[in-house]
């Protein structure tokens, strides 16, 4: 059985099912049998996600604002 990558209570990014968007989630638990993480989104929604749908916060780079224009 593979070891788990994320710990209970850890804040990470979870992909919303059916979407390519990732949102901040908290790991609630891990089921080694099904290899699914139960996560909680900021709005309170709890879902089960596969490990490949979860990324560490550090893997996301903040985008710089492009509101400052360099055109004359």
Automatic annotation (TrEMBL):
<dbReference type="InterPro" id="IPR002999">
    <property type="entry name" value="Tudor"/>
</dbReference>
<protein>
    <recommendedName>
        <fullName>Tudor domain-containing protein</fullName>
    </recommendedName>
</protein>
<dbReference type="Pfam" id="PF09465">
    <property type="entry name" value="LBR_tudor"/>
</dbReference>
<feature type="domain" description="Tudor">
    <location>
        <begin position="4"/>
        <end position="62"/>
    </location>
</feature>
<dbReference type="InterPro" id="IPR019023">
    <property type="entry name" value="Lamin-B_rcpt_of_tudor"/>
</dbReference>
């Amino acid at each position: 059985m593979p070891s788990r990558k994320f710990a209970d209570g850890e804040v990470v990014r979870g992909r919303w099912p059916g979407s390519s968007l990732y949102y901040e989630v908290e790991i609630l638990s891990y089921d080694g049998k099904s290899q699914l993480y139960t996560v909680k989104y900021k709005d309170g929604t709890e879902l089960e996600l596969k490990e490949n749908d979860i990324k560490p916060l550090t893997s996301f780079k903040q985008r710089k604002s492009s509101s400052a224009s360099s055109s004359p």
